[in-house]
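Please annotate this fold before class:
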Amino acid sequence: MPPQEILWRLLEKTKKLMDKYIPHGKDSCISPPEKKIFLLTAHWDNKIIGALFSQKTKYHLSIADQAVTNQLIAFGIEVSHGKKIEWFLDPVTQKFWPKKFWGDINYRDKTLGGVKFVWEINRLYFFVSLGISYKLTKNKKYADKFIWFIRSWTTGNPYPIGINWASGIEVGIRLANLVWALSFFEDHFFSQDDQKAINSFVKNHGTHLHRYPSKYSSSNNHLLAEGFGLFIAGLYFPHLNHSKKWFTKGKKILDNEVSRQILDDGGSFEFSTTYLSFVADFFLLYKISCDTCGIRYNQAINERLEKSCGFIKSIMDVNGNIPNIGDQDSAVLVNFGLSNLENFSSILNTGSLLFSRKDLSTEIPDLKTWILTGHKQVHPKASALKQKADNTPNESKKDPEIDGHGISQLHRKSGLAVIRGRINRKEFLLIGNAMPMGMAPLYAHGHLDALSFTLSVGGLEFFIDPGTYRYHSGGKWRTYFRSTAAHNTIRINQQDMSEQIGDFMFGKPYQITENRLENNNGSILWRAGVKAELKKNQTSAITRQIKWKQNQLIISDYIETQDTGLIECFFHIHPLCSVKNKTGGEIHIQRNGIKIIVLPDSRGKIEIFKGSHDPIAGWYSGNFNEIQESTSIRFYKTLNNKERIITQLSVELDE
């Protein structure tokens, strides 16, 4: 850490010591939130919403009805509480986090479980489902339960006690879901006691965020959550003490951070594709809030959001799939009923309306965009609805530009290369990864995936990034999913490209030495290189070249190292593909009438793993805390200082 960060952290410790012993009074304000400044539900019509978005309304009603009976969900784990919610309970280990001053709690303590599980419940995502369900039904039980939860949470987490105050990102997300839920209760009468409970909840959250901002190596997406929480609390609760300074500080953070946290090619500066879904929403909801309320803001917000939409569109296949590069924790800002990955399509739909860009629209039904904009154009035709319901590839939007020779796009800042074409009438999309390791100096959400690639054909994923699975409680799984071996790339002497020295830290980073795209004589060539310092001060340099023409890919890997030993080339395949090792060395990968034939270099050997524990290989995690068997292919041979390995792929389609 630089000296100024060390000094700042020491000052933070001093503040914590003071706050541990200073009494914290309750806010006695009984003024209601000024709900009319938010017009999020101005275009709401129950009949239209129910008809167009029946699946999403059923989802919110289901979540709300479960919440009414104290059944809460964290990453697919359902927890049934009795009459009292246990806000410190880890749903996996069934252990309780300590009820003491938040600054004295080690949230990295793995003996209690992965802290994200208890935090996930305490983000109060179900608040929005209660609000939407009330709006749909006018059933008072949802409003009554909403205020009951606020009282229960405040009693169970008396400031500054408990794990749920230990991270600013959690505090900011709670505020965001509270405010968006309240927008759906705009015609409900809250008693003075109800208003006091809401105001007390917000006062503690706003005070904490203002007092403990993230800085230096911590100023990533956590800072955005803190800034957004301060902004939204100050905007929505102007009658509270200190709300003006909350608003001012939160707005300043968001205005200043947009040009840092969204790169000028539209990617995320943490070099994680899925975190871009999370980050973009902070600026999107900030922009819409400001536009609705007539608040001026940094116009870089519009510029970077539009670029981010273009970036997302460029790496999304025809079925809405996004390569899962870097950490993936399924995070969303506000629970509109969309997963982190589904939210990408919603961002594009909203962007298509906000920036008058029809080319961004995905034609996927989108309640979130309707809520935020009130535009009926967000709902596609019935045929598109049927395609999504049947989970069939959408081949209706034929882009004449990518027929024949295909198109390519290089995102220089983000490090991603895009090759898009057609094989017959099916889309072919390859994403080449020459991203930096992650956000310096910790590289926290990066994976050791340099020179990896993903490939989809006809909107179906074949070569994939296996994902993340878990964070603090991941153990060997956390190590595996971040490792070089868990990506479609090269490993030398069974060593990662950088040492993993903690769940969110790496050693000396590898360096990307080149990253370029060329179009030559009807073919597209991606060439990228990486240099890594392995153990014993041994340096390796790898250059990967992928050439695409018509239905064929030729992957050429050039390796230079000061050592001899073993070289491995890994390929990870989507779980819905069948993989067969044919005689003669060919590997056939099939899915829904599409076959990819892999012909590895004949000088090596091949191993195929599916759900292996020793070694760990053949696993896929599409979302946080989800894991299933998939197929991993390992090609390996003896390394002799300089090597060239050729792998050929060809795509065949059933006519």
Q: What stands out?
A: Residues 379-404 have pLDDT under 50 and may be disordered. The first strand starts at residue 71 and ends at 74. The chain is about 35% helix and 25% strand. The radius of gyration is 25 Å.
